[in-house]
Design brief:
Length: 190
């Protein structure tokens, strides 16, 4: 009986402490809200919002050239474009034959193949685990040999499927990269 009474007293004390903490937290929250309302009323002028249009365009810094380096570098003719500009192509407009449905279907098919293979990978791994457990549970050498053959076959299948999963994930990233280069909006791939 003494343990029961002690447990009740502890439970009542914990409940009282929790209720006082909760009520104190609610009061302090109300005080904070009042103080914030007073602070907002005392603010005189609105804060200026800076947008991209307000920012100045900063030209890229050209590293300083020493006199020895200046003599070693050939001077390009005035009419030629800089070397970096020739390497970059302007973004292309999306191919009209490859509409959003084309890209969605292509990406969905690739993702579906990767998801299906991942599911099958889990199943093969589960089979390997079961065969391993079964192998150690058997005493008969003939049964163990048969189980080991099936386990080895499953391990080979797991290795093949793991390589296929890597290829499928690479295919998805290749489609994403191809779409990016073709200037396809990201929403078309979802």
């Amino acid at each position: 009986m003494t343990k029961n009474k002690t447990a009740r007293l502890v439970l009542i004390a914990v409940a009282a402490i929790c209720s006082s903490v909760l009520s104190a937290g609610a009061q302090s929250l109300a005080d904070v809200a009042r103080k914030e309302a007073v602070r907002r009323e005392s603010v005189k002028a609105p804060v200026k919002v800076i947008t991209n249009n307000d920012l100045k365009v900063v030209p890229q810094a050209v590293p300083p050239v020493t006199p020895g380096e200046a003599a070693a570098q050939p001077v390009p003719p005035a009419g030629d474009a800089p070397a970096g500009a020739a390497a970059e192509k302007p973004p292309e407009a999306p191919d009209p034959t490859k509409d959003p449905e084309y890209w969605r279907k292509r990406m969905a098919d690739a993702r579906q193949a990767a998801d299906r293979n991942a599911f099958l990978l889990e199943a093969v791994q589960s089979r390997i685990n079961a065969l391993t457990t079964d192998f150690y549970a058997r005493d008969d050498p003939y049964q163990r040999a048969q189980i080991e053959l099936a386990r080895q076959k499953s391990l080979n299948e797991l290795e093949r499927m793991s390589k296929l999963q890597v290829e499928l994930e690479k295919k998805i990233s290749d489609i994403e990269e191809e779409a990016r280069r073709a200037n396809v909006p990201p929403g078309w791939l979802r």
